[in-house]
Amino acid sequence: MNCGLLSGLNEPVPLKSISVEVRVQDHVASVSSTLQYVNDEQRPLEALFVFPLPADAAVCHFSAKIGEQEIVAELQDKEKAKDQYDDAVSSGQQAFLLEESAESPDVFRLSVGCLLPGQNAAVTIIYITELAVQADQSLRFCLPAVLNPRYTPAGSDAGIVSEISSVSGAVPYSLTLSVHVSSPKPISKLESNCTLDPLVFLCSDHTQATVNLSPGHMFDRDVELFLYYQDTHQPSAVVEAGVATAPSGSLMRNPVVMISLYTEFPEEVMSSMATQREFVFVMDRSGSMDDMMHRGKEAQHRIESAKDTLLLLLKSLPMGCYFNIYGFGSDFESFFPKSVEYSQDTMDQALERVMEMRADMCGTEILQPLAHIYSQPCIPEHPRQLFVFTDGEVGNTKEVLDLVKSHARSHRCFSFGIGEGSSTALITGLAREGSGHAQFITGRERMQPKAMESLRFALHPAVSNISVKWKLPMLVTAETVSPPINVLFHGQRTLIYAQLKGKSLRGSEGSVTIKYSLKDQPVTNQLHFCIKPTEETGLVVHQLAARTLIRSLEQKERSSAESKNLRSSIMKLSVQAGVSSVHTAFIGINKDTKQIVKGPLQRRRVPTQGQMKTLYLIGPPIDLDYDDDCSIYKAAPEPPQDLLLPLVSLQKASGCWELDAALAAVLGKTEDELTNQKPAQVDGSVWATLLALIWLYGWRKGQQVEWQFVARKAAAWITSQKVGDLSQCVCVGNVLLGCQVTKDSLGI
Question: Which DSSP symbol is given to 53?
Fold first, then answer.
C-alpha cells in the first residue's frame, strides 16, 4: 500500500502543502494560508495539526473546500463547537475545527475529521496583524514556521500545547509564499532571512510591489520580511465604516478609528542617560539553550551568545546603578541575595559567575524566578528594569503574563526571544504587560545589538502622566477600546483604537491629543484627521480593534471574580466581529456527505519543524530523534574570535582601561609600543582609555550600537580626569593604530 509521506512516527502525513498569500497595506498585513490535505490511506482518517501563529493575530476566517464544494466555518462557543465536531465525525460527516490554545494565544489546533480515502481538502485560514517597527525603521512581518515543544511545569494542564508534534529534519510538506505590498509612501526595498525572488514594482511611483519566496523552503526557520519605505513613519489615522446590520451600539455597528503615532524625543533628551536604575537580568538556562543560534558554520550555542551579551551589558552599566542576575530552568538561582550597587568588585564577581553559566537547568519554569524578583522591595529612586532572555518554550504563558501585569507599576520589562520558534505570545506579552520593549533574535542575527537597543530604552528618561484627549464634532464621542498607554519610546509606534459613537458628520475633522511628561517637562502631540471613513478597508480596523479588546477582556477575566459575565462579553464580541478568542472556535460541517465508519478513525498528527534536541518534561529527559542532518551541530568549527568583546572585557567598571600587555595584544601591539608612544601629559590609564576609544571608532564603527555605552563611559571618565586638550594625543593614537578619528568624534 502506498501511504505517501510519513511522519517521524512512520505514519502517513495527510498535509501535503501550504500556500500563503500576504497583502500588506502600509503597516497592516492580511494573511491567507491554504493547507492542502490528501488522504492516501485506505480508510477515513482524522488529521490534527498544532501550529504557530503570531500572538497578536486576529484570526477572522476559516473555510474548507472539498472538490467544488466550499464550507465556510462559523464562530461558536468553543465547547459547543467541539461537541458538534465530535458528533459530526462520529456519524461519518466531514468536519473542520479551528481552536486557539487556552494556554498560549500563538498556538492553534486544526482538526480535519473524516477525510475519505483518496479525498482532497483545501483548508483556508485568514488572519490580520499589525507589523512591528524595527530599530532601523523597517516593518517586520513574520510567518511562524517553527514550533518547539513547550515545557509544562508540574501540576499544570498543558492542553493544546502538550500536543505539539515536532521533527528535527525536513517536514513532509511544502510552502509557497507570495507578498503584495501597497503603501501611500514609496517602497524602498524588501529584505528577508530567506531567499526571495526579485522584487517587482507594479507602478512607476513604487507604491505597490510583489515578491515571492523562492522554492525549497525547509521550514527550518520562521519566514521574516522587512519592509522599508522611503519616508520615515508619520502619524496617521484610518477611519473605517461600521456594518449596518450589526446590533445597535456594538463595536461592529459604529465607525472605528485606528490612530498610529510615532514618538520623537528631542535630541537633548536622547543624549541624556539616567544612571539611577536597578537592572535585573533573567537568563534562560534550560536544556534548549544549548542549541545553536542558527545552522551556519560560525553559529554559537545560544547560551554562549547569552554569556557574551551579559558581559557586554555588565560593562555598559552606568556607575550609580544596582544590578542582579538570575538563571532559571526547572529551578532558579541569583548571583546575589538582592541587587547590589555596581562597582568594580561586584562587576568582577558577576563576570566570574557568567563565565561559569551552562544550559544545565533542565526545563523552562520562568514563573518562580519572576515571583521571587517581584517579592524583593524596589530600591528608592532606582526604577527597576527587568531584562528577560529566553527561547520562549513555556506552556503556562498566560499565568506568567498575568504575574507581570500585576506588578506593572513597579518595573519595566524588556524581553528577548532567542532562536527560531520562540513564543511570540510570551515575548511580546512580557514587554506589553511590563511596559517595555520586545526583541527577537533569529537566523544569523546577533543578540548583542538587540540588547544594547533595549538598554538604551531603559536608560532614557521614563515618560509619565500619559493622557489621551479627543476633540470631535458635536454629538460625536470616542470610546477607546485599546488598553491605556503606559509607555512611550523614541521612534516606536503607538496604536490607539477607538469606537466613534453618535451622528458622524461625514467629512468633518476631529483630532486626538496625547500629553505626557518627559524629564518633568510637559509634551503635547496632536493629530488631526478626517472622520469620513476610508474606502476599501473592509473590516480590518474593526477586527483588529476587536482582537485588542478581546485580549484585554481575557486578561481581566483571569483575575476577576466576575468571570462569568466577562466570558459572555468575550464570546459575544468574538462572534459579532468574526475574530477568534480563547472561548470560541471555528466549526464547519459538510452535511451533504455521510459515510458509515466502522471503528475509530485513523488519527494522524501533522508535525511542525522543531529545533530542540532534548525535551524536558516531568521526570527524566527524553531524547528526540534527530536524523543525520544533526551532524552539522556537532561538527561546527569554532568561529574566528572577534576582538570587540576581548577589548570590552578589559574595561573597568568606572570606564577606563589599564595600560598593560592584555590591552596591547587586543590592539595588535606590544606593551612597549604603547608605553613608548605615550604623551607626557597623560598617565597610563588615560592613554590606554584613549587608545581603546580610537580603536573602537576607527576599526569597529559598524558595530557602534554594541559599544556605544562602553564608549560613553570611557569618554566621561577621561573628561573627569581634567587632562586638558587631548588633540595631540589623538593624533599620536591615530598614527599608532592606523586610524583617522577626530577628538570631537570621541566625545571628549
Answer: -
